[in-house]
Amino acid sequence: MPDTPFAIATFLTGQGDNDAYFTSTRVLAHQLIHAPATKLDASRVSFLVLCSQSTPKEQKDRLRKDGAYVVELQDVPLSWWIYSGVTRWKEQFTKLRTFEMIEYKRILFIDADTMIMSPIDGIFEEPEVETMAPTLTSRKDQIRRDESALPNEWFFAARSDNGYTGQRQHPTPPLQTVQFSAGFFMVAPDRVLYNHLLSVMAHFRRFDPFTMEQSLLNYVFRREGAMPWRELHWKWSATWVNEKDAEMGVKSLHEKLWDKGPQPLKDVWQKKKGEMLQYYERHR
Predict the structure, then answer these.
(1) Exposure check for the chain: N or C terminus, fewer CB within 10 A?
(2) pTM score over 0.90
(3) Cα torsion 242, 246, 251, 257: sign
(4) Which of 254, 281, 260 lies closest to 117, judged by CA?
């Protein structure tokens, strides 16, 4: 692994029905590794592409040539009752391997269908990111004896999901919600915490499996629980993006902009895709 205190990670699986996510991963990698306006400070922050076992070899090889650090992961074993009707979500629990990567102080996970609008590595310097939190053992009614032990302290933060506050018509600045999106979260890796996630998954319907790992994480880090999730500032990420998000300076837009969203933002994504292709054409 790269020797940096922080990492930004995304996830690529071979379960998709086309190359859209692979292309989007390449666009994201170019923005974070090479594009002058948005690239990371590589001395402090590494960019990782986490790949499931189904990710084609040629895609992993291409990403390595692009300059990404590819991490090949074993899939997380699932209980029989955990499934979803959305085929491409089959391997989404593999992204939980980020919780095991204790060589990093913090890992920011962002879904591959994210467009970077301005530098994002400053998020690791935010006050709410720098400190751990003690587990709230006083909330005894929220600690289940049939789940494995909780860590003494922890860190997990995310962004409220705009899907609950008007979707595309959400206000900016947005309202906070009870649920967060698992497409943008930060964690302090901890094996005790990872094992706790696995223990929760062993219990039938402890969470609704329809949205897979997002439901699990929202259960484990529920606001009323012993490890309530922290809210990251709204300017770091938006879901169900609209033009106001971009106008107000949101730094990353989580949307399949090759297919959905406001046309002006779709145009920006296509421009960034073109810049990516031109860059690698010049640096073959």
Answers:
(1) C
(2) yes
(3) positive
(4) 254
